[in-house]
Amino acid sequence: MISLLSKFGLIACLSVSFSAQSAVHNLQNKQDKGSDKNLTSNLDTNTKENSQSSIQNNSTQPELFSQEQDDYAHDWDVSGYIKTFASLPTDNRHSKLELDDLSIYVSGNINRWLNPFVEAEYFGARLLSSQKGKNFKNGKFIFERLYNDFKINNEDRIRLGKFLAPVGYWNLIHAAPLVWTVNRPLTSTYSYSNYITGLEYGHTLNSMSGSRIDFYAQFGNEYNPKPLSEHPRRYKNIAGASWTIIDDLDSRSSIDVQYAKVKTSQNKRLTFSFQKIWYLQTWDIDTQIIYTKITNTSDDYNTENVVNSINKISQISNKSEFSNLININSNEEIQHENGWDGGGYLQARYRYSSKWNFYGRGEYFHLAIEGKSGQNFVIGTRYHLGKWGNINVEFKSGSGAQKIAADGFSISYNAMFR
Amino acid sequence: MALAFHTMQCLGDMMKKIIILISIIVLMSSAVGHAETLYVIAQKGAFVSQKNKNDIADLYLLKLKINSTGLKIIPINLPINHPLRSKFSQSIFNRSPEALSEYWDRMSFRGIRPPVVQRSEQAVILFVSRVKGAIGYVSQKPLRTSNVEILSEISL
Fold first, then answer.
1. Full residue range of the structural domain in which residue B12 is found
2. Rounded-to-integer distance, Cα B136 and Cα B152, Å
3. ipTM, 2 decimals?
4. Domain count of chain B?
5. What digits encode the pLDDT tens for the residues A350-379?
6. Which of A166, A290, A346, B128 could form a disulfide with A242 if both were Cys (CB 3.0 to 4.6 A apart)?
7. Nearest CA to CA, how far is A373 from chain B (Å)?
8. Both B63 and B9 in a single domain?
9. Are A13 and B132 a contacting pair at CB < 8 A?
């Protein structure tokens, strides 16, 4: 009897189970069919993270997304970022509030031959200052990047126009919301040309690891350069190469070399750089070391050139609000005939939560211009406001050469927008 | 006779309870099974072969931009606060959605387009069914009648 009942129970159980699974499947089908009816109203074709306004699809235009030749909307990407910056120095410098960067960049991936990239930047607008009579200053507008990529095949690419020099990752990814500190390390910016106006050939060695090699050259002057208040010198005739050993979710490392001739003097700068970044679960660790050998042949470095440089700079400085800085820079170029710039930093970021991040950095740098070195440390925190961006508060202190050792607090609001 | 009938009735009630209990367990395990599997989907015929976790990672890390037939690949994501995106990020990349978002922001700054974000799983299915080369992930097995196919089933 029990055996009979058990068999009956098993059959009934399987039957109920099967019926239940069928019911679930039917329900799922109904839900799918039901949702199909609402798909077009539910469809949100936001093309990027956090984007709230983009193309809305509708049922009358399905071909917009199903035919590649009509797919232009997916070929363009518009983004930007903003950085405002308040510096509260603890030494004798003045406090100020600046709109440091307002940048918009547009990239297109149309076909093999048409892949433009434009980045326009408004920068350096002083909103407030503790210095008398210098409360406000208009910013400047430049094209930071303006190029087109020609994709020869999956591995090879030629870039033509103005682009960022591949010397360390910081120079390539310098947007405030994408880097951790308010103050950029001197190692990442000072001793080489940050921009190239010319040609770059890139070859992908291994697409999976991100390994690639790039060769680039600039013949002549930089297009639409930033004022000398932003960069210590201008260059003409540049050549360089970058070997990205690995570039993926876990780490990034590269070895870079650049040879550049300084425009306002006869100095020639040969730079070597190595960078390694580890992206760990809760930590990012980033280090870069750089060495720049500065040479000046006595034949080139004659009195006439020095006088010409001074005259040119004087003409510029009379029209510029950055005259003090320019004079400093002119002296810099004239003084160091031979010598070296170089240094390195080690930076760590700890992701405490999705909102709070803490970071610290130590940096050492030797300056040819001052003939001496300096070091500093930075500690700070970044509070992530979600799609509204980030707030950074950091403190920097140092000793030695003034260019690296300036002390004080910095507060920044920065955000990406799409 | 009455006792035998009563015993039979009791046994019958008990069996009913057991059957209901087992059915509930089977249903629950079935429902849990659905919630713990993630389906990576693409338009029918767009991709030649099945994909494993590493392949999916390469596609979403934008390392592969075109497939073997020369088709432009468009990875589709859910919003950053969507629970399925969190599971997808952990399962495929062992990273939080925020960490991956930072990665894609860096790609975007270099002119490489990050994954397209769709607000719901239904929108992902529709997008994938209409755009050849799009790949997305959903928590429910898509209908056989739809224009999508499963590239990979990933247990969460």
1. 2-32
2. 11
3. 0.74
4. 2
5. 999 989 999 999 999 999 987 889 999 999
6. A166
7. 32
8. no
9. no
